[in-house]
Amino acid sequence: MKLIVQIPCLNEEETLGATMADIPRQIEGIDAVEILIIDDGSTDRTSEVARENGADHIVRFAQNRGLGHAFKAGFDTALRLGADIIINTDGDNQYFGGDVETLVQPILEQRADLVIGDRRTGEIGHFSLLKRALQTYGSRVISRLGGLQIPDVASGFRAYTRETALKISMFTDFDHTAEHVVQAGQDHWAVVAVPIRTNPKARESRLFSNVGEFVL
To answer: pLDDT tens digits for 8-40?
Structure first.
């Protein structure tokens, strides 16, 4: 059983090392844990930092192509490398990498096709009241569209089985996390949400340029 943790990155030299350091390399029930970096046209030392911290695979674009393209490139590469489970996380170290073990458990127990980490956004101190409200509202709207109950639709910390990854059909920028939830509901995948931990805020998110993008 091979697990590949993919990390799409854009100028993450300051946080990528810490992100990688927390990812467990030995997990019961998993034979191999590999880290795949997708460097989406970074202009800093992101790729060098990835190598210095033991990345197993690096895909690097000469120019920025967008999060959706980077996410899909990661999936395509992980599948080609024989991944049985693919976990996606962010290079900004917002998620605690040790919870990789928590994410894979429902898949190892054959209870889930897709596992989504629940940040419990209402408890995150550095989230403004507006951001908490938007996250809650957006999750309710997208969950309703997919016929599911997912508390944190925007979470990028999630695990996919190989079979599920092969079926993913949507990789647009910014909102692919929501689209995958809608597809999961339409295609009747088994989706499980598990509580995860977050790290203190390191910088402003690069993912959303305005407050409406997540809800849309």
So the answer is: 999 999 999 999 999 999 999 999 999 999 999
Cβ contact 216:137 at 8 Å: no
The residues near 93 (Cβ < 8 Å, ≥ 6 apart) are 15, 16, 18, 19, 199, 202
Total count of domains within the chain: 1
- Kindly report the backbone phi and psi dihedral angles of residue 115, in degrees, each rounded to the nearest multiple of 5, phi listed first: -120, 125
Provide the domain limits for residue 163. 2-215
Task: Report the CATH number at residue 180.
Answer: 3.90.550.10
Q: Which range among 115-119, 128-132, 146-150, 160-164 shows the weakest confidence by mean pLDDT?
A: 128-132
SS3 per residue for the chain:
CEEEEEEEECCCCCCHHHHHHCCCCCCCCCCEEEEEEEEECCCCCHHHHHHHCCCCEEEEECCCCCHHHHHHHHHHHHHHCCCCEEEECCCCCCECHHHHHHHHHHHHCCCCCEEEEECCHHHCCCCCHHHHHHHHHHHHHHHHHHCCCCCCCCCCCEEEEHHHHHHCCCCCCCCHHHHHHHHHHHCCCCEEEEECCECCCCCCCCCCCCCHHHHC
